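Lecture notes, part 5. Sequence design as translation. It can be helpful to think of inverse folding as translation between two languages: the language of shapes and the language of residues. The source text, in structure tokens, appears below.
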């Protein structure tokens, strides 16, 4: 009975949690669902087109995660500033995100423009016509995606600030509008409908870029037109100056988080490169698996974001015991929910790859990868909520050790050795690399239970 009271909340608790979580789930779910349809559309064109886009998106994923890291470093301050009613603090956090993200856009545009071909080539180990075709499709897609880096970054600056202030509906609506635009344009531009030319992978890139401009415009216009609901946006562009004391604090607490996100994303790219040594079929299978998995993963990812928002605001308001109790119940809720979702995902695993116009070998590999992801989902839910718990209290160096340091010290060396020095097939290799993260569960449990994250770091601002 005592354990039940500790892990399970009342009706008001779940109403509060779902009020924050469901809009994020809907937004990310629709985004990933349209991403699935986008992936299927490209997959209908051909396996090599699908593989080329998958590799290019792996590189773009690193940029996306760097943006998330940049906004998250300032975002932990934004949530606590809003929790204690300091709107000027929220504005300064916004300005920091804006400047930092602008610098990242310039840097990554140069990297992908000048070095994109070489980076894609790292994943193509078979040689021959298939590899050459995959490289050509991937690089064309990458170049056409570059204009979309600007609206993506700016849109994330606005959306993250709104979410930190508890406004999750507007980013959700903007995301829904954007993905519908993306879906319609994909159909027209990939296949050449309604008199448009059939552009294939280039059409998919153009559709994505246009949809990102739409999403950014919707969320920015709402933020500036509804000052009564977003008072912290009043005068946000009057100056770009930020108090140096705050800049210093954001760098102290945020730098480990920013570096962590970059190392984690590059680590994921490195893992994919290790897996790619088993052949182009593996890239295609992993692409299908990750696209399907992303659709189901939105629940535990949204729960993690909700922890950052809800627990961060409670810490900023000085309600420490309530923050601890709320966090425990949210972690239990995330794990329980994802156990059910993982079971459903496992049941349908063999059916998803049938949606793609590819070989039986690719479909078999994709189904096996999906089963592994489904098995690991409760563990990933626990790890994700532990990560955001530590982050909400500003323990960003610990999250660095918890996340990317583990990947580069354990997961990547394991994948490197197994892929290069053994003949182990790709499916057990993939399983062992995923299962290694169970060690993080022990680490995360101890840190969260000890309460090292219970800290209000904006009280003095």
């Amino acid at each position: 009975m005592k354990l039940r009271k500790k892990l399970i909340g009342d009706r008001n608790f779940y109403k509060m949690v779902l009020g924050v979580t469901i809009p994020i789930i809907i937004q990310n779910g629709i985004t990933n669902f349209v991403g699935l349809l986008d992936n299927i559309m490209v997959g209908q064109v051909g396996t090599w087109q699908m593989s080329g886009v998958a590799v290019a998106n792996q590189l773009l994923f690193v940029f996306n995660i760097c943006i998330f890291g940049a906004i998250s470093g300032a975002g932990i301050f934004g949530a606590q500033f809003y929790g204690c009613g300091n709107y000027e603090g929220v504005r300064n956090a916004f300005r920091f995100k804006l400047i930092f993200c602008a610098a990242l856009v310039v840097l990554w545009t140069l990297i992908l423009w000048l070095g994109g071909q070489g980076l894609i080539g790292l994943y193509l180990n078979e040689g021959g016509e298939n590899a050459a075709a995959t490289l050509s499709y991937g690089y064309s897609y990458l170049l056409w995606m570059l204009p979309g880096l600007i609206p993506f970054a700016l849109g994330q600056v606005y959306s993250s600030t709104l979410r930190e202030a508890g406004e999750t509906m507007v980013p959700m609506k903007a995301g829904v509008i954007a993905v519908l635009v993306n879906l319609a344009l994909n159909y027209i531009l990939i296949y050449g409908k309604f008199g448009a030319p059939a552009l294939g992978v280039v059409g998919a890139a153009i559709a994505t870029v246009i949809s990102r401009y739409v999403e950014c415009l919707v969320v920015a216009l709402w933020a500036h037109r509804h000052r009564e609901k977003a008072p912290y946006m009043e005068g946000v562009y009057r100056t770009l100056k930020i108090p140096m004391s705050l800049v210093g604090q954001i760098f102290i607490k945020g730098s480990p988080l920013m570096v962590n996100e970059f190392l984690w994303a590059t680590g994921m790219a490195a893992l994919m490169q290790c897996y790619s040594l088993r052949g182009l079929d593996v890239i295609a299978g992993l692409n299908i698996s990750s696209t399907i998995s992303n659709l189901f993963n939105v629940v535990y990812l949204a729960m993690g974001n909700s922890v950052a928002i809800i627990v961060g605001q409670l810490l900023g308001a000085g309600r420490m015991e309530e923050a601890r109790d709320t966090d425990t119940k949210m972690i239990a809720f995330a794990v329980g929910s994802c156990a059910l979702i993982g079971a459903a995902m496992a049941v349908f695993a063999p059916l998803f790859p049938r949606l793609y116009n590819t070989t039986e070998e690719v479909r078999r590999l994709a189904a096996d990868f999906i089963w592994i992801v489904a098995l690991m989902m409760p563990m990933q839910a626990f790890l994700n909520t532990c990560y955001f718990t530590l982050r909400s209290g500003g323990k960003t160096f610990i999250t660095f050790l918890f996340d990317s340091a583990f990947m580069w010290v354990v997961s990547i060396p394991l994948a490197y050795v197994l892929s290069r020095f053994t003949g182990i097939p790709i499916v057990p290799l993939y399983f062992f690399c995923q299962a290694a993260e169970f060690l993080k569960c022990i680490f995360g449990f101890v840190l969260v239970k000890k309460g090292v994250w219970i800290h209000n770091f904006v009280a003095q601002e």
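The translated text above is only one of many valid answers, since several sequences can fold into similar shapes. The chain has 15 helices and no strands.
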